[in-house]
Amino acid sequence: MNSKYLTVTAITRYLKAKFDSDENLREVFLKGEISNIKYHTTGHIYFSIKDENSKINAIMFSSSAKKLLFRPVDGSKVLVTGRIAIYEATGGYQIYVDEMIEDGVGNLYIAFEKLKQDLAREGLFDQKYKKQIPKIPERVGVVTAKTGAAIKDIISTIKRRYPICEVILFPSLVQGESAKEDIVRNIRLAQNYDLDVLIVGRGGGSIEDLWPFNEEIVARAIFDCKIPVISAVGHEIDFTIADYVADLRAPTPTGAAEMAVPNISDLINYINNLKIRLNESMNKKINYQKLYLDSIKNSYALKNPLIMYENKKQKLDILIDNLSKVLVKKYDKAKHNFEIIKNSYVLTNPDIIYKDKQIKLNNLIEKLELVNPLAVLRRGYSLTILDDKVINSIDKIKVGSKLTVKLHNGEFDATVNKVKENKND
Amino acid sequence: MTKEKEKTFEEKLKELETIVNELESGDIDLDSSIEKYTNAMKLVKECDEKLKNVEEKVSKIVTDNGTLEDFNVE
């Protein structure tokens, strides 16, 4: 009956599943001493962690190993965080390490992380509070120890790069219990010295040595400092709270000095370059204006001023010509009209008007003569008048009527004897 | 009216840069160009002198009573 026997793979998988489902094994905090450490070319680190009685195998993959702040060696006392799982191929359990720090600084590390988080939450690291570091300072302050590499490096770097800058040292304790108060006091003091920038830092050392720069009062003093602050604590890999709160973090004291001052020869070159640009742009401008002036000077009008005058004169002449032509024309026309009138028939034969009238008058006289009753009388006719009226009908006359009869050269009275009416009228 | 504080080197350099850029842009008339050019050359001279003629500054240390003393690192 083979069925009750499991394969090795099966039991290993069973155990692996047990491990994987155990919440306690997913995030394990472990302390111990490193032994048998091997750095693999892939970047992974293989080692054991042991204490007096036990030992556990450990692996740290390169992705986590890259974040290590120290180089663990056999015998290093460490604090690790990771998960415990079974590796099927060997059937052994091991811890997969995510983070590892040196033991003994463990409490400090926790304090560091907590303060960093608190101050970050408060906004002390916010970019908006970062002051601009002046490019060309006249006075640089340094808060660091009076002796040691840091101040030496800072002063020699500044002298080399920008010797005309004044350096003022605020000698300070930079390690030990009372260092934090001393650093704070000097940062505050520095603000009375008309500085353009302040370097705060120290040279390399153990994490305990650097610790004053992880103190909250130092962080707040840097934050409150009115002068822009460059932090310069330890080496490249050392990050302190002071670095986060400073306006600029320098990897080393030498680096801080390089950031604080420009290189004088660069500056001289730059100013020379500005001078060249200045002259070039001015020359360009003047040349342009010169060319423009020349083009005006050489213009046709300025070169031949008489032309302008002659043109105008010619125009005037034409106008005068035109004017006289118009006047002559008007005069001629008026004269012509006058001639016509003067030579008219009526004016040349004025008596025609008179003669004409004479003939008309004679005709009228003749016509008048025709109707003149006296003319009729002269031919032997007479007018019969009764009561001062000319009688033209027999009915107005009765026997006995007293009539007056007018002839062309006199008249006489008569009395009617007999009346005889013409029957055919 | 208080007397205007003398411009710092950095302010002078900044002013100089501004003038050079203005002149290079070519938007200003000749008269103001000349004025600006004269002003800029003065700034160039001042900056040059500052960089070349000033003696190396001696480092100082603040003493316990707050005064400054020369400081030499050995």
What does this entry look like structurally?
The complex is a heterodimer of chains A (425) and B (74). In chain A, the strands form three sheets. Chain A has a five-stranded mixed barrel with strand order 1-2-3-5-4. A five-stranded parallel beta sheet of chain A has the order 7-6-8-9-10, with helices on both faces. The longest helix of chain A has 38 residues, at 305-342. Chain A has helices spanning 8-21, 62-65, 106-122, 149-161, 179-190, 207-210, 216-224, 241-245, 253-260, 264-297, 300-303, 305-342, 345-348, 351-371, 373-378, and strands spanning 28-39, 45-50, 55-60, 77-87, 92-102, 139-144, 166-171, 197-202, 229-233, 248-249, 383-386, 389-390, 402-407, 410-415. With 425 residues, chain A is of the alpha/beta class. Chain A folds into three domains: 2-103, Nucleic acid-binding proteins (OB fold (Dihydrolipoamide Acetyltransferase, E2P), Beta Barrel), CATH 2.40.50; 110-262, 3-Layer(aba) Sandwich (Rossmann fold), CATH 3.40.50; 373-415, no CATH class. Chain A contains 15 helices and 14 strands. In chain A, 45% of the residues lie in helices and 21% in strands. Chain B is mostly helical and 74 residues long. Chain B has one domain (9-70). In chain B, strands 1-2 form a two-stranded antiparallel sheet. The mean pLDDT of chain B is 81. The interface between A and B is medium-sized, with 35 and 35 residues.
